[in-house]
């Protein structure tokens, strides 16, 4: 009996073992494989949960400093909003600054405290030499949409320091001629008189009106300051400095002859008048007012004046050269840069914003709404700009002039040279001091400052 029970137990164990093996084989043979296993479903569910739980990448927020008010400020805000709404990677926060000197001081303090804005509208090109701005060459190289040959050459070149692109132009300005159409016609003249400074002076004599020994209507009004006469000097072949950058040339015959010619027109011939002094831009608006009120036949002023002029009365024309020289007035850009000390992420964000501002349609928008010059040649082919130009032909004059203009002079002494020129211009324009005396004094003073920079003895 005991043997039987033992045998039966052994057989039971064997049968149980065989059943287990069969079940195991059946499970591996694919039975019910159409049912997804719990382990198969887990990765997909986990991935979905992780994706939902993952935080979204926040946009890079940057500050952009600019000292623009009024309509200029409003148009800047419009483009900042347009940029922010056009993409989700960068948010620009515009920070309006005060006067230029105040902005400069604040920027100095921000850089010193290592809390600078990511981008700033500035004229401090010489700060790049001090390591206070970031070169953009590597970002430009990686940008397939950056077309250097589409930028106005004089504007893009202005942002180059020591062979590197530290600044990008945002908008430009140049001084052009604005004349009264009725006075030109009354004198029996055509716009051919504006092709040289000599012929312009002859026309000014014909449009000049003198009553009882006093000038009632000036034939022309140059704008107060050294810049106006420097433009005319460059159009005679003059230069600021020698090719090696060590010797000032502001007392060369080209400078002396040009500046003394303006002195004679103002003080001796009395065919040109000039406003000076006053608060802020008072002299500028007095000049414009004289032309608009018929007390002058025309003046030389900024492209940015177009918003203040009535073009049913006046028209615009490019600055001339002299009989033996082509016109070469300065076209100056307002530049924007990226201060040193901001993160690489913010540098790229700032570059994205600055290149957006200079896109064809945006620089065209700025030009149409402010009177300043678009920084890209393709703006002239922008549909909206073409339609605007057809209705406002004067708007194209500054942009066309800028195509072949001289680049702005970058004072390596931190404005010591231009300060000397400013003093010399007052002596010539206001005090009737001969240009040779005024310019030689300016040269002697400014050369000492240039020598400090260049290390010359």
Structure description:
- With 457 residues, the protein is of the alpha/beta class.
- The chain has two domains: 60-173 and 332-407, Periplasmic binding protein-like II (D-Maltodextrin-Binding Protein, domain 2); 175-331 and 410-454, D-Maltodextrin-Binding Protein, domain 2.
- The protein is built from 17 helices and twelve strands.
- The protein has helices at residues 2-28, 38-53, 70-86, 100-112, 137-141, 153-158, 181-186, 197-207, 226-234, 253-268, 282-292, 344-357, 360-370, 383-391, 396-402, 416-429, 435-454; strands at residues 60-66, 90-96, 119-122, 160-161, 164-165, 167-180, 209-211, 214-217, 298-302, 314-317, 330-337, 406-407.
- The strands form three sheets. Strands 1, 2, 3, 6, 9, 10, 11 and 12 form an eight-stranded mixed sheet that branches. Strands 4-5 form a two-stranded antiparallel sheet.
- β7 and β8 (214-217) form a beta hairpin.
- α16 packs antiparallel against α17.
- The longest helix is centred in the first third of the chain and has 27 residues, at 2-28.
- The radius of gyration is 35 Å and the shape is globular.
Gross CATH architecture of the largest domain: 3-Layer(aba) Sandwich
Query: Count of DSSP E strands?
Result: 12
- What's the helix count? 17
CATH topology of the largest domain: D-Maltodextrin-Binding Protein, domain 2
Given as residue ranges, the uncertain stretches (5+ residues, pLDDT < 50) are 1-42
Whole-number mean pLDDT: 87
Question: Mind summarizing the main beta sheet?
Answer: 8 strands, mixed
The first-level CATH class name of the largest domain: Alpha Beta
User: What is the alpha-carbon Rg in Å?
Assistant: 35 Å
Decide which structural class fits the backbone.
alpha/beta
H and E order: HHEHEHEHHEEEHHEEHHHEEEHHHHEHH
Fourth-level CATH superfamily of the largest domain: Periplasmic binding protein-like II
Task: Identify the overall geometry.
Answer: globular
Beta-strand percent range: 5-15%
Distance between the termini: 129 Å
Structurally, the number of domains stands at: 2
The percent range for helix content is 40-55%
């Amino acid at each position: 009996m005991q043997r039987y029970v033992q045998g039966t137990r052994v057989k039971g164990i064997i049968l149980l073992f065989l059943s287990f093996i069969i079940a195991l084989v059946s499970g591996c043979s694919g039975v019910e494989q159409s049912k997804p296993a719990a382990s198969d479903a887990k990765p997909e569910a986990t991935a979905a949960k992780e994706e939902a739980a993952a935080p979204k990448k926040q946009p890079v927020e940057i500050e952009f400093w600019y000292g623009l008010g009024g309509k200029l400020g409003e148009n800047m805000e419009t483009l900042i909003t347009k940029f922010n709404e056009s993409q989700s990677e960068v948010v620009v926060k515009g920070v309006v600054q005060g006067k230029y000197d105040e902005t400069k001081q604040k920027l100095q303090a921000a850089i010193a405290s290592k809390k600078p804005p990511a981008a700033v509208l500035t004229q401090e090109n010489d700060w790049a030499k001090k390591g206070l701005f970031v070169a953009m060459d590597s970002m430009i190289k990686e940008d397939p949409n950056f077309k250097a040959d589409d930028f106005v050459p004089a504007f893009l070149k202005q942002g180059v320091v020591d062979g590197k692109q530290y600044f990008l132009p945002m908008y430009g300005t140049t001084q052009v001629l604005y004349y009264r159409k009725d006075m030109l016609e009354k004198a029996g003249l055509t716009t051919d008189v504006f092709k040289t400074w000599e012929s312009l002076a002859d026309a000014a004599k014909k449009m000049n009106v003198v009553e009882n020994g006093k000038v009632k209507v000036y034939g022309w009004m140059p704008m107060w300051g050294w810049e106006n006469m420097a433009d005319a000097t460059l159009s005679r072949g003059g230069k600021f400095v020698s090719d090696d950058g060590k010797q000032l040339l502001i007392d060369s015959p080209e400078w002396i002859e040009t500046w003394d010619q303006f002195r004679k027109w103002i003080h001796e011939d009395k065919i040109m008048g000039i406003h000076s002094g006053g608060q802020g831009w008072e002299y500028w608006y007095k000049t414009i007012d004289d032309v608009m009120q018929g007390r002058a036949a025309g003046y030389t002023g900024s492209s940015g004046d177009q918003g203040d002029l009535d073009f049913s009365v006046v028209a615009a024309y490019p600055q001339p050269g002299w009989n033996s020289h082509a016109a070469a007035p300065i076209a100056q850009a307002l530049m924007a840069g990226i201060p040193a000390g901001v993160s690489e992420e913010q540098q790229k964000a700032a570059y994205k914003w600055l290149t957006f501002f200079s896109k064809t349609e945006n620089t065209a928008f700025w030009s149409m709404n402010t009177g300043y010059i678009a920084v890209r040649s393709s703006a002239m082919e922008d549909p909206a700009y073409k339609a605007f130009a057809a209705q406002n032909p004067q708007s194209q004059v500054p942009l066309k002039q800028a195509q072949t203009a001289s680049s702005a002079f970058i004072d390596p002494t931190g404005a010591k040279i231009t300060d000397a020129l400013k003093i010399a211009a007052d002596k010539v324009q206001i005090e009737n001091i001969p240009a040779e005396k005024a310019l030689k004094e300016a040269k002697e003073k400014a050369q000492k400052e240039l020598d400090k920079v260049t290390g010359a003895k």
